[in-house]
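FAQ: What does the model actually see?

It sees only this:
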Amino acid sequence: MNAPTPILNAQNLSKTYATPWGTVDAVKDVSLSLLPGQFTAIIGRSGSGKSSLLAMLSGLSRPTRGLVEIHNTNLWELSAHQRAEMRNRSFGFVFQFASLLPTLRAIDNVALPALLGTKINSTMAYDRAALLLEQVGLVDRSQAYPDQLSGGEQRRVAIARALINGPPLLMADEPTGDLDEKTELGIIALLIHICRSQATSLVIVTHNLSLTQYANQVLTLQGGELTTVKQEIKADQKVHIPPPELPEVLPTAVPISLGTNLGINRRKLLWFLPIVPVAWGLDTAVAWYQQRIMAIKKQAFAQLYQATHGYLYIDIQNVAYEPDGKSYRLTMVMQNLDQAHPLYIQILPMRAFVQKGFTWEEIPTNVPKDSKNSLIKLTTQTTFETLFTPNVPQPTELIPGYMHVRIDTDLLVSQRSQPEDDLINRSDPYYFYLKPHNADDAEILRHSHYPGQPPVYISMPPH
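And it is asked to produce this:
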């Protein structure tokens, strides 16, 4: 029997970031292949390069060196437009947070990637979205909004959304990190079921080592290097995990004769036939109007999405000690790169976490009394702040003398001061290494080299 042909081949991938303190080798000389129907788990501690590797494989981040081929096409020799088309056609993405649009129903969230494309019309997109919601067990929740769904249900909607364009590759970055154990197992079972039944190659980046027992291929990263590879490449391998009780296809419609079960006979039905052309005309006009409204909303949403994710720049500006000797003040900078079109932004409370072992422990945050955090009109640039207290005993030190901190921002963005359904939620994680208040600079310098006094914080790229 011939070996299956890989969907994706990567050779000698490396990623280097430049920082004020020198270069950081996030990924070093990694090679791998992904097969149809194969579940690949990528494991490693935070900062080991897992997400950087996933971003290079998915065409989201250009490698410093190396090659990524999808069906023998070099991903990084394509133009930006061709690469975007390749991503849309070949990849589905499931991230740590569901990131559903709060003003859209579940079925709208699923259909949206297809509506933004050009391959199928809106009717086909919604038909496929309904089928996918059926297949993930949410057919009765298709009209619900995200805030009416549980965490597990939101994640199932995100999985359906990732599959709307029928991609051969499904990439999941910590897709169950915020879920309880039972819900997590259900989501993993669903992902594996999809992987096996649709011959999709599934890649999951995870801290949860117990999930590796279900994988065909396990890649372990340490310091950006591939240190362990476990391969059991059998596309039909059965996993020891309860399969989800989900239907494979939509129920088959049963044909009936006109008038059956209506409580009238066919002779009486003939009296109503003259009404049919009028009803048809009205229905056609209503359908045209609805399609026109949908087209206008689609265009407006695409413009808002581009403004929110393309022209709104956010980053860490500074982290400073607070006088109480235990807290810090984080200042974020936010810039509108398209100054001709102001954005109205509601800044929601930030959340902060410190890494301890393989998990993130949430820590207290507070909005400073002198903060400008509120609904703002952003034309050029502004800042917003939060106070946080990293009260985690014995945090993990990936860099000697520094704890690993994650900040999650949450924004509601519109192009109008009084939005209705024209509102997008943007959530982003930011990572940095943080020096404790009572740190011994001499001890830190004994293990690491800095141009002067060790800084209070060291920013990191997304990982």
